[in-house]
Every structure is written in structure tokens, then in C-alpha cells.
Amino acid sequence: MSVLCMPVCNYEGEVIGVAEIINKKNGTNEFTPQDVEVFRRYLTFCGIGIQNAQLYDMSVREYKRNQLLLQLARGIFEEQTSLDRLVTKIMTEARELLKCERCSVFLLDPQMKNNTKGGSSLPNPGSPEPEEETGEALVIRQSHPPPPDELMRIPVETLTVHMAFELQSRNGECRVTQPSGDQASSSFHARLANYVCSTGQTVNINNVVEWLGSPLEDSGMVTHSVLTIPIFNSSKKILGVAQLINKENGLHFSEHDINTFEAFAIFCGLGIQNTQVYEKACRLMARQQVALECLSYHATASQEDTDKLRTVEIPSAADFDLYNFDFCDTFLTDDETLKCAIRMFVDLDLLNTFHISYEVICRWLLSVKKNYRPVKYHNWRHALTVCQTMFAMLKTGKMEQFMTDLEMLGLLVACLCHDLDHRGTNNSFQTKTDSPLAILYSTSTMEHHHFDQCVMILSQDSNNIFQSLPGEEYRKVMTVVENAILSTDMAMYFKKKDDFLEMSDNGEFDWQSEEKKQLLCGMMMTACDVSAIAKPWEIQHKTAKLVADEFFEQGDLERLKLNEQPIAMMDREKKDELPKMQVGFITSICLPLYKALSESFPWVKPLYDGCARNQEQWKRLAEQVDMGLTWIDHEYIEKPVERHELEVISKITLNPKPASQGTPPPPHNKAEGGGKGRLGLSSALRGARALKGGGKRRSVEKRLDRVMDSSHEQRPARMSPKDEAAPSTPLSEEPSQVGRVGGEQEDTAVLARGKHQGKACNKLRSRLCVLL
Q1: Which end of the chain is flanked by fewer CB atoms within 10 Å, N or C?
Q2: What is the pLDDT of residue 319?
Q3: Where in the sequence numbering do the catalytic residues fall?
């Protein structure tokens, strides 16, 4: 009869369908032009409606797909502790998502992951070369599956499958295997998985029989269709391959299935990567625990040393001078230092109060001592000195009445452990060198490490002096120890000092609140840590030498490793500035702290007095350095020389020409040389003050050398110490003659004379130094 057929277009004019009307009913055999126009206009609205319906249906399906993927992703990321359970969950969700009979996941050998797209570089004839990794889609789809003979040509040694997970629908159980080379080479599924790993392409085979030329049977199941997709991690490297086999009801895997599974594979890759990282972290933690156990064993003192210390007699605190703020460990042997530590615990009655085994505390002290490194200053003896100062503050300073027994125990333990395993470098050096300690602790790096070392020693039952404490007291004492050790970081001191100084200025006397007690303990730790600054001058001078040596070694390391100029206090080339830096350290840190403590606790004022006395000594030393006197050709600070009438502390090292061996110096002939070659004190001081700029030191030295050389033939014999100690009396009968110009003799300086003329010259010659 009659047919009218017209396209259905969307709003963009694209054909989305065709409408057809057949057999007009009004008795005519043809559709009129008017019918055509009406039908055309009607189809315009139909095209818009159909397109809207398609968009709505697409949005609904996309919404359901996204919800499903989010649900799947949530389930995957909930299981991050076991790779087996995670992969099983992935396969279960994938099988339910795409309605297939079987699902398999192949993971790559970890040793084979360093490849271009994640797999090995196998030939892929007929397929485009993989593009450089960009932000575009990761998966490249292959329109035609590879020929079976190409899969069989893959060498066995290049097969990268390391582990295979298989989930079948018959019993719902997952089978995990690690196929051998023969098993991987004989399985078409494993070879197809290796092919996808090597190319990074998705392969969808809808008719396996047609592709292979014969049925493919595996484990009693005939394979009809297979979809293989690579799984990528966050770095776009292939972790493995997911394989879906036999879509239910005999259908093929559609484009929609591929899109859904590709999106699902992204979450699978992230989940597998996170689980692998977690398992690796667990292995590293286990390895660290084993290393810690070994370290704890070797860091613990031997039973022989423990028995030896346990059986010896411990002298009294008075014998060791432990109650004195001027205590010095220099004359103590290593064994005596341990006896000192035991005596402090005994005199505070801490062993009886907390039921600490005497054998345990002996072993603990030996272990603590053993874990200090032999650095110049921050070593075991420094820890003992800090602990003794704390003991003296508690006893002599009468601060024990403000502390509980538990707090005193924690403070003594913190003092002895506050520099454990110190490497002779500070926090700044750890940060600059990106050391493992700096990575582990972002702030107070070394202090956190010291506390961790303390915990490591206490973690051994044979070293745990807190083992008899109830749980609550154990937590409290460990908190005291931690806060006290962290307070030795100067950065922490500067954060808290203003609050402490303000409380002291306001006359605070109640320190029993938890916050105030913690602040007080922190200030006490700092006061003990720097207490060497308040020792008698001889001890302080020696300690300053040790600190400078350690700082200079760090400065040398900074030059060597970091290729940078160290700060002045660690720069060996600026060692002459040490007196001035010591004055600044005392002024800004030590004196304000000791002053505040002594105002609140008057019995600790000896610390303030000793610090003030040493400040004056360093000031005198700094003034002499400003005059041009310094330490020359020495790697460390020398022992302070004896004082002269002007109480001058500095000295200059000289290198005069040695006298000829075997020829005794001739006796002094006053008539021949008069006073030639003798350097009087007044002349030397005037010459030193007259020197300006950077040449002060060398000018004074050259001048003295010239005088020494000129007097070589006329120098008097060496005086006895008794003669040297006699004061010089100025005489004016005869001027010194030190040079002639044009045959005319003239005076160049008024030299002081006494009955011991030439004392300074002979002393410089014999001892290589001059007292100014």
C-alpha cells in the first residue's frame, strides 16, 4: 500500500532514530504533502523527548554505577590488613558486579615491577606503541585479541605472574596459588594475563572457541568469554591483572561492562597498593622490634659487672662531697662515679620507698653508663654532674620539701638519662643533615631520642627500677621523666622562662599545682644542665674547654659534610671569641635563671654566686682578647695562667728561635749590653694598647720576638720560682738602651726595673708566654 519514513533528530540535528508510518486509512493510497509536514513537525518533538529520556536514563545508570563503585571502594578500603582477604573481596565484588562465573587476579612479581608501563617489555606486533604517561586514560583497549601462537611464543623466563587468586561461583571459596614457571607457561589464562601486563591493554575475547580454534577447558570449566584488564597503582605502574571469565546466561562482556570494570580496577589498584605498603610496614616494624631486642640485650650491663658493683661498699655522701654545689668528678674513677649515683638514691631513701631492688638499680646504672658515647662533653660524667647538682638542690638547697618522693625519683632518673646516646652534635645539625633522628622527631630531636633510649633501657625487666610501682604511679613518674628530659632543650627553656621569671618576680611560693610543678621541674633541669657555669673557676675553665672542643668538632663536620660556614660558637677559627660568648651565655640564660631560683629558694644562692664570679672572670678574659691577646696555635683553651699584679688571665704563645744545642748561654754582662733585650711590663702594655686592627696579635708577637733575638747573647740565667714571684720595684737610675740610629743612642721606652730585671724576658724565653 503506502509507507512514510522519516528520521528522528535531536536538537543538534543528529539522527537518533527513524519513524515509519504505513497504510493511510482515509481511502487514499498515498500520504499527502500535508501528512508529511505534520509528521515532520511531530517527529521534532519526538526527537527532543527521546533525547531527554536517553539523558535521564544515562544519568540514572551513571548514578547507580557511581553508588555501586563507591560502595565497592568503601568495602575494599575497609580491608587493608591482609592482601589475601582484600583480593578475595575484590573478586567477590567484581563477580557480583558483572555477573560472571569466575574471577581471577594475578599479581606481579615484586622484582619485575621496574618496567615502562608496569610489565615486561614483550613484543606486541600489530598494536600501537604505548604513549608516554600523561594525565589521560591509563588503559589502552585492543580491538582484536592477540593470536594464540603469539601468546605461546612468550619466553617462560619473562612471565611476570607471581601469585594467582581464583574465585569460582560453584563453592564461593578463593584459591590462592603461586604458579611455577611450568604452570604459568601451560595456562592460556596466565599467558593472557602476562600479555596484558606487558602491553597495558584491556583484552576482551567474546568467543574463545573461535579465537583459539578449539574449546578451552581449565579445572573442569569451559571458557567461552574472557575479559582481562590491567590494575594500576597511583604511580601508573601495573600491580597485576584482573580476569573475568564467562558472563552468565551466555552473554558477552559489553562496552558498559568494560567501562564499569575499568573504573572498579582503579579502586582495586589503590587498595592493593595500600595493603602492600601496610604489610611492608608491618615487616619493617617486626624487623625493628628484633633489632631493638638485640640492642637492648647488648646495651644491658653484664651480670659480672652488676655483681661487682652490688657487693662493694658505698662511701657516704660527705666522702664524695655530694652536698656541695662545687662538686667535681675529675678525681673520681669510673667505678666511683657509679658509687656516687647509688649514694644519691640511698640518701633520698628512694630504694626503700619504692621497693627498688638493689641489684636492679646497680644493673640499671651500669646500663645507663654503657649507653653514653665517649664524646668530649655530653658523656656519662656530665650526666653524673647534672644529677649531683639536682641532689644538692634537693638536699642543700632544701627543695625536697616542695617535691614528692615520686617526683624526686623521676628527676634523678631524668638527670642521669637526659643525654643518653648523645652524638656530640645538636638538634640543628640533625635537621641540616636530614638524619634518621630528624625524620623521626620533628622537634626537640635529640631530647626525644634521649628519652626513647631511657625507655629502651627500662623496658628490660632486669633494668626496670619502676617495676614495683602501681600503674598510676608508673604513668606519673614516666611523665616526670619525659617532661624533665625534654626541658633540657634550650628551645623549651626559652618558651617557658618568661612565665617562670614572672612568677618569681611576683613572689610565688605555692608550687604544688600540676602546671606550676612541671614548670619548676623544667627550670631545675635547665639549672642543673648548665651548672658547670657555677663551679669554681678551675672547673669552669676546664669544662668550657670540653664544650668548645665538642662544638668545634661539629663545626668541622658542617664544613666537611654541608660545605657551610658554622656559627661562631662552633667555628674553630673564631675560638678567640669564646670569652665574649661565655659572657653573653651567662648574661642571657644562666644569671636570670639562678637569680629567679635563689629568690624563691634562697638556699640555692651558691649557684648564682658562683655564676656571677665566673662571669667576671670571663669578662676580664674578654677584655684582654680585645687588647689583642689571644690563644695562638692551640686547638683548645689552655689552662688559665697564674695571675700577676694586674690579675691578667690571658696569655700569648710565642715561638722564639731555639738556642744552639750544647752551647750554654753566656753570663749576662751589664757593661756590654746594659738593659738591651729586656721587655718591661709598662712598655709591653703601652705597646699592646697602641696596636689597632687585625694585626694586634702578630705585631705584639713580632716585637717580642725581635727583643728576644736581640737579647740572646746577653740573657741572664733562669730565675727561681721564688725570685719570679717577687714584686718588681721601678727604678729610674738608668734608662734602657734598645737601639741606635746614625751612631746616636736614644731612649725608645721607659722600662720598669727592679732588683729582678729581665724577669719577663727570661720567663717568656723559658715558658713561651708573657704575663700582661
Answers
A1: N
A2: 94
A3: 378
